[in-house]
DONS protein
Amino acid sequence: PGHSPSFKKPPALLRLKRKRPGRRSDPAAAAEAAAAAAPRGSSVAARRRNPFSSLDNAPQRAATAPQPPPAAPAGGDPSAAPFWQFLEPACEEKPPRRAEPAESSDILSLSQDLHSPLAVPKAPSSPRQEFPADWSIKTRVLFMSSQPFTWAEHLKAQEEAQGFAQHCRAAQTTLPQNVQEPRLCTELRCAFQQSLVYWLHPSLPWLPLFPRLGADRRMAGKACPWAQDEALQQVLMSDWSVSFTSLYNLLRARLCPYFYVCAAQFSVLFRAAGLAGSAVPTAAIVPTTRGLREAMRSEGIEFSLPLLEENRTRKQKNSVESLETETIDGLGGGSSVEDVGEPAPSDDDDDGSFSWLEEMGVQDKVKKPDAISIQLRKERHEVQVDHRPESLVLVRGSDTFTLLNFLISCRSLVAVAGPQAGLPPTLLAPVAFRGGTMQTLKARTVSGRARVQGGFEDVFSLEVLGPVLPHALHALTLLLGPAQRGSFRALLSPHEPSAAFNAAPPQEGVQQDLPACGLHPKTLDQLSQSPTLGKSSIRLLEMKDFSYTWKA
């Protein structure tokens, strides 16, 4: 039984009172307000509502009207309209929605269950034969196509073993441009298993070891026997140091192209010489703080802040252009050049002297700031970037070895309190190393129906979960092109702090070869290019007629 149509809930009554200017109200306005406060429809009338629910205790689903799926952006391809309904604009205050269980599998439920809300990307790029290197770590990748992904499910034991063997032997598989029967292609299925392999340290199956930034809530309540055992912490840290040193030695020998160090406070990306357009090994750290940067300076580690320097250069260029424009306008309007070109007062001119207080005779009445406060005031621009992508630190050349020793002895590398206390950072690498454990990404196929103009169409998806490293993403696209007849779309959910790794290091113009690093030659060519994404990452990737378009 439903309630009376004229009944209004307390929140609706309050809204009506706000809309009324006084006791006298317009009947038409009152009718519109009553219609807006009326129940949402007769479809939910059978479900009895609580008439005393308020704005605070009312369920969010009942208080919020369902939003229609966003339409395709202007100028976009009409054939891509079904794909855009899976995207939602990013919202900081609204938590990501969980998909409700349904009787049939729907591809929409997968996109709504992404770890982080996805922002509507910018305009797509022009079609190219290759997409740019993305050094961010993906937590989830959702491939969608009009062709089924049956070739990626129910791998045989022999195919799985062959895929592991190809990975360990760094064997590369070359597929034809079009695979006629993907489900019966053993080479394709083995290569798919090979592309899912990565190496991890430490290996604690009951703990989620990636991501580590902001993972305290997910690790809370897990068994951590080393939290109160200092001897066990020292053993874990000693074992981790051996694995970390092994990875760095492989990187210097050009046998490992790159690896990640994921700590509770920051992440580090080590890249071998020849990758990202750099002729020397590089290491990028993000996010950083002023304390960490000061500690690195005290150890003699030379580094740069490429994103911060880029912002300063851009601001200086814009200020010069605006100054020239104002000067021209001022001359045309009759104003003096001296007034226009007068420089703004700078904090750098303040040398900390307080002689002007003595001249005024109030030096004893005014509390002078200490030297630390003066230094912080001068460095406030550097402090403001702490914990932000602009705080990315880039270390190059032989300083990466000094950074290795610094990180091993760094106190802030391991948390001292909380669920991650005493747990060494996570090491992620594409190749085997001492102490590393072979892991595989989780993959599953789902079929569903997507709404299109005039009805529905079948949509097949391949969902890949886990820390998807840059080489794994490219290896998967090399397989999906021939298997899906050169047409597929991908929704990528990046680990946001790692997007800053796409900042480009200085270019030397020297090409370095990495022939024995275990990656596919095409993947190696892609990762050797200079990054072009800045501090953003690819969120949308589409292949059509074997040409890529992407949106960041």
Observations:
- The two ends are 51 Å apart (CA to CA).
- Residues 201-307+384-437 form one domain.
